[in-house]
Amino acid sequence: QAKAEGRNCFHYFTPALDCAAHQRNSDLAELRRITREKSFALVYQPIVDMRSGSTIAMEALLRLPNSPLAAYPVNEVIELAKEKGLIADIGKWVFSESCRQLHRWRSAGIGQINIAINTCAPELLRPDYLSAIATNLEQFSLAPADIALELTEHEAIEADRSRSGVLESLRSQGFSIVLDDFGTGYSSLSYLRSLPVTSLKLDQSFLHEIPHHPDANAVTRAVVALAHELRLNVTAEGVERIEQAKFLLDVDCTAFQGYLLAGPLEADAALEWLSQVRQPAALLDIAPRVDG
Ligand code: C2E
Ligand code: MG
Ligand code: MG
Ligand code: MG
């Protein structure tokens, strides 16, 4: 709450609510400004295959350097952007910059690596969405199979309801569709089954009690098994401890991501990661080392 009130609030003289409203207005003006000026940056977090230990993708995450908004958690800024109708413009920049980055890595000789891009319903619902992303792919010589689109269950359902067929269309073009923060939503499993998704990304809250809490272990094991039954990949996010990674390997999770391996990296560090640390999981000695 203190955070939402922000800086420059004169609590002793201004009623708190006025101050919060004032802060919100200046945050919004700032968000409009950086959206107009595309004053954003991306950082990249490795996603590593559990079995081979190699980096299979980098997830692009939005950052707002040089802005007072950098003081807020990114998802709060994203929420504000959604509320105020700015998210589609931000998403457009994120998609294009992610493609540009993947193209740079390819040009630097980094082999098969995908990019995971976070997105949401308002972006997918733009009338020009499909044509804009096709233009980006062409500009950077990329194929849909190079790209995973991450969206939460809620956003996927919203997109599916409002523009029936948009997810199918993306899927049939060859994009991977990942349900992010899986396990925190409320939709029925039968509805989920009707969505054209390729992977589930287990929410990091699953991991907190693993492996020392039998119930948490059982739920995670069951979700991973369900994913496999539905022929979906399953990635775990927020892996911070080696015991968690061992547990995930044991229950046959497909891939993982988290501070244990690497946090979000700036472009230079990401390139270094991709060119040097090809098998971090093998280095951590949790996955069987792949010969050759
Ligand atoms: P997400 O897509 O679920 O991303 C995972 C978040 O967990 C990221 O926070 C990441 O930095 C953080 N994280 C990664 N590893 C660990 C770990 O081991 N432990 C812990 N505690 N945290 C970890 P971040 O970058 O602040 O992003 C927050 C959320 O904001 C994202 O959640 C995503 O929903 C949204 N977001 C970020 N970038 C974009 C974007 O370009 N577009 C859209 N639409 N949403 C974005
Ligand atoms: Mg994500
Ligand atoms: Mg997530
Ligand atoms: Mg999240």
UniProtKB/TrEMBL annotation:
GO terms for molecular function: catalytic activity. Residues 24-278 form the EAL domain. This is GGDEF domain-containing protein. The chain holds residues 284 to 575 of 575 of the full protein.
